[in-house]
Amino acid sequence: MELWYTERGIVPGLGLSVQVSKVLHEEQTDFQHLAIVDTPLFGRMLWLDNIIMTNIKDEFVYHEMISHVALNTHPNPKKVLVIGGGDGGVIREIIKHPSVEKAVLVEIDRRVVETSKQYLPEIACGLEDPKVEVLYEDGIKYVENHKNEFDIIITDSTDPIGPAVGLFEGSFYKSCYDALKEDGIFVAQTESPFYDEELIPRVQQDIRSLYPITKLYLAFIPTYPGGCWSFSMGSKKYDPETVDLSQKPTYTTRYYNHGVHKAAFMLPNFVRDLINK
Ligand code: AAT
């Protein structure tokens, strides 16, 4: 008998099914349902509340693109904050940058970090680095209590349901703005431009009301609905499209390079229309 897991719910009317060869772990944490499964197509996968979070096969695209675009736009990022991202993939990319002295991960659900370390060491490997501090609390509260501290803030959050709803609200974006230094950069994963026509314009407007430079960029992520995924950026000083990347190394990346950095901001017309709404 074949076992299939289906992601459904974030896009009404759409199901995304993956064949599962083995269920390694399932539990109800204090915040969400967590599953680790092996699959023939994507290798090991992390699911939260029946939604695909990450997997061995395509995780590099998301984790590189949410991290390196901002880290290579800022001339000297030293202190970086990640909200969510308990699997550790974003942290692994951030600490590739030699300028980074400290990376703080604020994850609401301790069990995501613990199970990722146990079952997904390829992704979680950076979490033990001495530059990394892992805190278990609500990212919304954390940013409210920090001012003028970070060069970069990255929101690697679940979809806007459950504990992540507040991570897509104007008051959270304002707190992040205040937690950034005077030349800081904010990046968030902001869902599918094809399926989430309501969220992206709203987030763009919120960011535009705070930052002089507001951008949307895209990457191709096979296991997220639609395959085309968006990231929203607010920058106080540095423009990611005009930044000179020629002196920046590309580190050991499989998706990100300087051409992709610039190309990611070239938006199809239907996406341009969304951000100008
Ligand atoms: N690296 C890709 C994985 C994720 S998981 C996002 C994480 O955000 C989860 O571990 C969840 O527990 C955490 N989270 C949710 N709300 C909060 C909060 N308020 N404070 C801190 N952490 C939070 C992203 C997957 C994207 C899926 C797209 N379909």
Automatic annotation (TrEMBL):
Report which reactions are catalysed by this protein.
Answer: S-adenosyl 3-(methylsulfanyl)propylamine + putrescine = S-methyl-5'-thioadenosine + spermidine + H(+)
Cite the InterPro entries for this sequence.
PABS, PABS_CS, SAM-dependent_MTases_sf, Spermi_synthase, Spermidine_synt_N, Spermidine_synt_N_sf
Record: residues binding spermidine: 63, 87, 156-159
Keywords (alphabetical) are:
Polyamine biosynthesis, Spermidine biosynthesis, Transferase
Q: Where is the active site?
A: 156
Which Gene3D superfamilies does this chain map to? Spermidine synthase, tetramerisation domain, Vaccinia Virus protein VP39
- Tell me the ranges covered by the PABS domain, including all copies: 2-236
| Top-rank taxon, per record | Bacteria
What GO molecular function terms would the record report?
Answer: spermidine synthase activity
Pathway where it operates: Amine and polyamine biosynthesis; spermidine biosynthesis; spermidine from putrescine: step 1/1
**Which of this chain's residues are annotated to bind S-methyl-5'-thioadenosine?**
32, 107, 138-139, 163
Q: Which GO terms describe its cellular component?
A: cytosol
Q: Key word Transferase present in the record?
A: yes
The enzyme class is: transferase
A Pfam cross-reference name: Spermine_synth
User: Tell me, what is an example of a GO biological process annotation in this record?
Assistant: spermidine biosynthetic process
Q: Which family does it belong to?
A: Belongs to the spermidine/spermine synthase family.
Q: What does this protein do?
A: Catalyzes the irreversible transfer of a propylamine group from the amino donor S-adenosylmethioninamine (decarboxy-AdoMet) to putrescine (1,4-diaminobutane) to yield spermidine.
Q: How does it assemble?
A: Homodimer or homotetramer.
UniProt protein name: Polyamine aminopropyltransferase
